[in-house]
Amino acid sequence: MMDGNKLKDFYEVLGVGKNASKKEIKDSYRKLARKFHPDANPGNKEAEDKFKEISHAYDVLGDDKKRKEYDQQREFMSQGGYNFQQGGANFEDLFRGGQGAGGASYEDIFDLFGQESRGAARSRAEKGQDLYYSLRITFDESLEGVERKIKIDHSVTCPTCGGSGAKAGTSAQTCPTCGGQGVVATDQGIFGLTRTCPTCHGQGSIIKDACSTCHGAGNIQESKMITIRVPAGVNNDSKVKYRAYGEAGKNGGPSGDLYIITKVDPHPLFKKRGSNIHLDLPVSYTEAALGAVIDIPTPKGDVSLKVPQGTQDRTTLRVKGKGAPKLRGGAIGDLMVTIDVKIPKKLRADERDLLIKLSETEKDNPRSTFNKLTNKAGKKSK
Asked: To 5 degrees, how large is the angle CA 295–CA 297–CA 300?
């Protein structure tokens, strides 16, 4: 940011002196641009803003005419001159995030490193977009795997023109407006701005005789039924990848991929956590106290579970090898059984009498230790 009587110091931005040679300026710019380029700093807004700033600085200092005018303006401003406006856009407009003079975006003003034209960059092969398909399956299917036929709608390379978009026997021609650059220059005084070519829309080439099948698009829409295999062991929101079933690529690039996103229906008894399956097992207080052997369900059928004598509520018992298969690898997880001791809310008269007799014979009252600790704590507080 700057005030009305001060310009951004482009030399400081690029880390060079005001007498730096053109090569020194270019070398410094390339080094900084590689460091702060958005592709090298995904999601980093600070790096993105820095990249825009150094690119603007190089756009001016890397051009002899612009640099001379900039130096003159710096000298003028240092002597008390006011921030001049050129075509309704002042210098500060061109240093902020967003857009500069005449609505031109930062991306329209410069090309990264000056190594290739915008048209050349746009003509590079690009992978097509990935597609995502949500597939609902049952709990049992998630354990065993399942095959399904699904319908997908995606773009494919035009079979008539092979993706060129041009009529058979013809080809795309260099755009006469931008000469294949994909951009056209606009004189803005000290800043020479570039804009996307209005004729070829940045592609650098135009098609005069379009393919009759795709009408120049290079791809067509297709609906097809495919058979997919969901492997055993998937969880809710697992992704199964099918290569090259996504959208068609651009400029000869490969097709994108298809991702099957599994949505597993809940089970009334089981809950799956990784490769282990969890089950809450209700037992009576007498079964927990005396111990018992109980038949319990598993995904592969019933098994007998031994509940040890004196099992406490919320104790978890492990049944090895009765869980789910691991998604990567053939190992099977375990069944984790959590004991849920059920205390009856109402008692029959005979049950009540038995429990009273039991309480009278209890030697190990669970509150005895608690009471001792309570009494001891009370004595210390006095």
From this structure: 120
Architecture of the CATH domain 10-115: Orthogonal Bundle (1.10)
Q: Which two structure tokens, joined as six digits, stand for 258?
A: 């298809």
Domain boundaries, the chain: 10-115, 126-168+212-266, 270-361
Distance in angstroms (rounded) separating the CA atoms of residues 136 and 51? 44
Q: What is the fold of 126-168+212-266?
A: HSP40/DNAj peptide-binding domain (2.60.260)
Amino acid identity at 8: K
Q: Do domains 126-168+212-266 and 270-361 have the same CATH topology?
A: yes
Q: Which of 288, 244, 64, 76 is nearest to 154 (CA)?
A: 244
At a CB cut-off of 8 Å and minimum separation 6, what does 153 contact? 221, 222, 223
Chain centre distance of CA 301: 40
* 330/277 Cα distance (integer angstroms): 16
E-strand ranges in the chain read 85-86, 89-90, 131-137, 146-157, 173-174, 183-188, 191-196, 205-206, 219-230, 239-242, 258-264, 270-273, 276-284, 292-296, 303-307, 316-319, 335-342
> Is residue 101 within 8 Å of 86, Cβ to Cβ?
yes
In 10 A of CB 296, how many CB atoms?
A: 17
**Kind and range of the H or E element at 1?**
none
The string of pLDDT tens digits covering residues 157-166 is 999 999 889 9
- Which burial class, exposed, middle or buried, applies to 122 when counting CB atoms under 10 A from its CB (0-12, 13-18, 19+)? buried
Check if the beta carbon of residue 306 is closer than 8 Å to that of residue 319. no
Q: Tell me if the pTM is above 0.70.
A: no
- The radius of gyration of the chain from alpha carbons, rounded to an integer in Å, stands at 37
Among 3.40.50.150, 3.60.20.20, 2.70.210.12, 2.60.260.20, name the CATH number for the domain at 270-361: 2.60.260.20
pLDDT digits (tens, 9 = 90+) for 302-354: 999 999 999 999 999 999 999 999 987 778 999 999 999 999 999 999 989 99
CA 30 to chain centre: 29
